[in-house]
Every structure is written in C-alpha cells, then in structure tokens.
Amino acid sequence: MNIGLIAVLAAMLSMSVQAAAEVSPRVEQVPFDKGTDAVEIKQSIQGRLTAQYRVSARAGQMLTVDLKPSNTSAYFNIIAKGADYALFNGSIMGNHFMGPLPVDGEYTVQVYLMRNAARRNEVANYSLSLNLSPSDTSDSTQPFDQTLELQGIRFHVTGEWVDGNPAVRISPHGLEVDNSDITRSLTGNIVRAEVADLDQDGSPEIYVFVRSPGRGLPGELVAYAANRKKSLSEIYLPVVSENAKAAEGYQGEDEFAVVENTLVRRFPVYESADAGAGRTGKMRQVRYRLVAGEAGWVLRGDGVTEY
C-alpha cells in the first residue's frame, strides 16, 4: 500500500473518531405559553451528551431554575441567544438560579456533566425545575403576603404602608420565648422572601429581599435569625463598599438568593462608579456565610466571582 493512500485512510479514521466524540445536544423548547409558568423535567444525560432547554422570555421576567442531579458532577448554565458569555455558570455558582432576565429573546438552560465525568461516560439522572414569572413582585400592585416554615418555626411576611412609606411586617410563630411582630421600614418594595438555615444549627432564619427601582440604588436585605428557636435577632449584611474587589463598578441593582447554605448577592458591573458609566455586560456575585459575630449575627463575605 503506498504512503499516500495510508495517509488518506489515517485522516479519514481521525475524522471519524472526532465526529464520534462530538455528540449533538438534546434540544427541547420549554412550553411556558400553554397557560403555565412552572415546568418540572425529569431526564438523564450520559457522557458528552448535553441537554438544552430553550425558553422565550421578555426583559424583566423572573426566571427560577433548580437542578437536582444524582451525579455531583452535573450542573447547568444559562445562556442568552447571541451572548458572548453565560448569564449563569452552575459549576461556579451552584444548582439554583433566580433573577430577572436582562433582554427580550431566547435563553438556553444547558445541563451537562463536567469534563472528567463526561470522559468516564458517567450518567446523571436529574430533576430540572423551571419557573418563569411575569416579573418580580416589586412591581406588583398586590401587597406582599407569604408564609414560610422551617424546623417548626413559621414566618408570616407581609408588605405594608406606614406613614406613607413601605414597610415589612414579620410575624413569627412557634418560638419558645418571644413571638412578637417585627416591623421594619423599607427603601423599596419586597421582591420575595426565603427561609433557610445557613449555619445549620437547627434554628431557621428569615430573609426578605427588597429592591428600589432605578439605577444606582442598592438592594436591601431584611433578615432575622431564630436564636435556638427562642426569639429573633437581626442579621447584619455588610455594605458592598466594605469590599474593594466587589465595589469596583458597583451601581446597585442587587438581586439576592439563598444558594446551598450561602446567601448570594448578584449585580451588574458598570465601567466605573460614575453616574454616566455604561454596563460592561458582566455580572458579579458575592457569596456570604452566616456566622455569630461579637454583637450578633453577621453575613460574612466568602468570595467574589464575575461572569
């Protein structure tokens, strides 16, 4: 066999192996237009196979994504059509996302295995929950009213108006000593509330997320911890300016979420802190862990990432 023919056959074999390694993704359009804003998908991926779930949405709509995989090497990303970067990277930020979508268009939620697991041809069974709401409740004409419960302690969270200003009332139930209502004035409107046990001490915390509309206005957090299920103590969140790395290009517009025993704060990054500066197109995420401070509970910074 001559050398030229051998070279051609070798090239063809190489191309065949490469083509076999490239697995086309499984693509599905999520049918939010059929009268529902929530979908749960139970499927699996193996090896290099990825699953892409495409969502058509408008700017400002709130997208919530939760992934529960059987394989710890499975994650999801969120990518806007035509974007040069991922809106969310699960391998860095965890398997929960909640936030407003920045532009009209199509978004892809891609479920995948990390490279080493894919090379080993591992399998991941998963449950993927997607929720697309018209907008967050900060723009709603209805007053915020939600009851949350964890570890036998219930919190009734309501939005009110006190002397013409917005306020939140937190009514605890099930505490051993003090179940008094707590009312706090707000700078904006309640977006949502979450109950969690970030320090895993067996006593829950309540987190109320508040947004002030407009550029340059920071998000606000109202949070309380149940001290050994006896009474509530306020949780302190440091301002962004205390962290030079996080503060660069910060102009407010914060979003908060509880993600895997941490509190996450996300916001768009601007070219500078000047009022006329434009967005860089990136998002920054600050992660906090709940710790007992000298004077009470504190959310201590635990890392800054940008994407």
Question: What this model shows, in words?
Answer:
The protein is 10% helix and 51% strand. The protein is mainly beta and 307 residues long. It folds into two domains: 20-133, Jelly Rolls (Sandwich), CATH 2.60.120; 137-306, no CATH class. The strands form four sheets. The chain has an eight-stranded mixed beta sheet, with no helix packed on it. It has a five-stranded mixed beta sheet with strand order 1-3-8-5-6. Strand 11 and strand 12 (165-173) form a beta hairpin. The model is unreliable at 8-20 (pLDDT under 50).
Summarize the structure.
The chain has 307 residues and is mostly beta strands. It contains four helices and 21 strands. It has an eight-stranded mixed β-sheet with strand order 14-15-16-17-21-20-19-18, with no helix packed on it.
Structural class: mainly beta
Describe the strand arrangement of the main beta sheet, using strand numbers. Answer: 14-15-16-17-21-20-19-18
Overall pLDDT metric: 85
Total domain count: 2
What radius of gyration results from the CA coordinates?
23 Å
Could you spell the SSE succession in H and E letters?
Answer: HEEEEEEHEEHEEEEEEEEEHEEEE
Intertermini distance: 54 Å
Content of β-strand: over 45%
User: How many H/I helices?
Assistant: 4
Q: Roughly how much helix do the residues carry, as a percent range?
A: 10-25%
Quick one: how many beta strands? 21
Regions with pLDDT < 50 over 5+ consecutive residues? Answer: 8-20
Characterize the biggest β-sheet.
Answer: 8 strands, mixed
- Described by the principal axes of the CA atoms, the overall outline is globular
